[in-house]
């Protein structure tokens, strides 16, 4: 899989993000959806990655700079055709290694508390993320789970 920094101009990426937002709104109340729309993902503090197998989009992941040392993971999504194939793991490793190369020391995320989000939470737990309280602008929310981990050494 080729992973690249993406400018969010391709139709495949737009469709995947629209699917992502639709799923977020169908699995959480609107006030508990923290997924970013296309315009927000194009802001300068966001680095957006897309993963490709040939010309087929496999998934995406972004991170947002919160401070010069701290980032937040955003918009993790695997295409329906690539689910359970390791795409999310590859995207996560790639993004975390880029974050380490850029000098970030901590990565945090918000994900849903419902069963729909269980595979994502298990992936993050596998990579050493631990549950924590709200960070940045977030507030306690029964529909959210917050996780964090230090960025110390690169992932293989």
Automatic annotation (TrEMBL):
Its EC number is 2.3.1.-. The lineage of its organism: Bacteria, Pseudomonadati, Pseudomonadota, Gammaproteobacteria, Vibrionales. This is Putative N-acetyltransferase YsnE. Keywords: Acyltransferase, Transferase. Residues 12-152 form the N-acetyltransferase domain. SUPFAM superfamilies: Acyl-CoA N-acyltransferases (Nat). The keyword rRNA-binding does not apply. One of its GO terms (molecular function) is acyltransferase activity, transferring groups other than amino-acyl groups. The keyword Acyltransferase applies. It holds the Pfam family Acetyltransf_1.
